[in-house]
Design a protein that fits this description.
- By secondary structure, the chain is mainly α.
- A 3-stranded mixed beta sheet has the order 2-1-3, covered by helices on one side.
- α2 packs antiparallel against α3 and α3 crosses α4.
- The structure holds FE2/S2 (inorganic) cluster (FES).
- FE2/S2 (inorganic) cluster (FES) binds next to α5.
Length: 142
């Protein structure tokens, strides 16, 4: 994919420029940040600064939006995302033990990525499949 001077991919820069032409350009912040996270796997400080410059929105506003929503990440994620459900149904059926074993096997804590960059370990509150408890999702839409 071609990049422009900003370091963001050209298609994202184009999208930001389209958004900037609108009256409330800051209302596009979430979709812009989602595009960046989908591309890079996380939001770097540099990317957020570029969004601030290109969208002409104060950097505090960009950071405020990015930190408000839990689905944005500020650290690089692994190739594979492992999510263990810690909701009530899963917890009473042993998801805590599953999570502990994964921590041991991967050598990371929740929210961390293995040193080789292959796996990120996360937990969630009810993945909507309680009847299958305990539930763990690998590379799913969580
Ligand atoms: S509590 Fe785990 S899927 Fe609902």
């Amino acid at each position: 994919m071609t990049t422009v001077q900003t370091g963001l991919p050209e298609d994202i820069v184009g999208y930001i420029r389209e958004c900037r032409g609108n009256v409330r350009s800051d209302s596009y912040l979430i979709s812009v940040l989602q595009k960046i996270q989908n591309h890079f796997g996380y939001l770097s400080k540099e990317s957020m600064d570029e969004v601030s410059d290109l969208l002409q929105v104060p950097s505090a506003r960009v950071t405020g939006v990015a930190t408000f929503y839990h689905f944005f990440s500020f650290i690089p994620k692994g190739q594979h995302k492992v999510t263990v459900c810690m909701g009530t149904a899963c917890f009473v059926r042993g998801s805590g033990k599953v999570l502990d074993r994964l921590k041991e096997l991967l050598g990371v804590k929740e929210g961390e990525t293995t040193k080789d960059g292959k796996f990120s370990l996360e937990s969630a509150r009810c993945l909507g499949a309680c009847a299958l408890a305990p539930v763990m999702v690998v590379d799913g839409p969580v």
